[in-house]
Design a protein that fits this description.
Elements (H helix, E strand, L loop, with lengths): L8 H10 L1 H19 L4 H12 L4 H25 L3 H5 L3 H18 L7
Helix pairs in contact: 1-2, 2-3, 3-4, 3-6, 4-6
Length: 119
């Protein structure tokens, strides 16, 4: 027996996609969860991409959200390196320094493709 007062997860997701205030709040929470998990393990980048992608209305917007989340992770990573005083050393590595950027963007887009499996 189901309680009529209980809201189903699909209804909450629909609400977060349609109402701007819930959408932005959901994106903020999704990005924070993704950043926290990715600080411990790289799979957090995929999780963050999947979370922001799930809040998008279409797969195309999910991919754009995944790219946006990936850029947030890259900027956070670069900021942490700059705060430690090693940004010039990392930038001096040229192409090797771009590898984490490409991997981060690729993994976040991969996670955002989860939107295609949702209705």
């Amino acid at each position: 027996m189901s309680d009529p007062e209980q809201t189903r997860p699909s209804e909450l997701l629909k609400l977060a996609r349609e109402k701007p205030q819930y959408h932005w709040g959901g994106l903020l929470v999704a990005c924070l969860i993704g950043l926290i998990v990715s600080s411990f393990h790289w799979s957090g980048i995929i999780l963050g991409g999947a979370l922001v992608g799930a809040l998008a209305e279409t797969v195309r917007r999910a991919i754009l959200s995944g790219i946006g989340f990936g850029l947030i992770v890259v900027l956070t990573w670069a900021s942490l390196i700059a705060l430690s005083g090693n940004l010039t050393d990392v930038a001096a590595m040229n192409e090797i320094a771009l590898l984490p950027v490409g991997i981060t963007l690729g993994l976040s887009v991969l996670g955002s493709l989860f939107r295609g499996t949702l209705g």
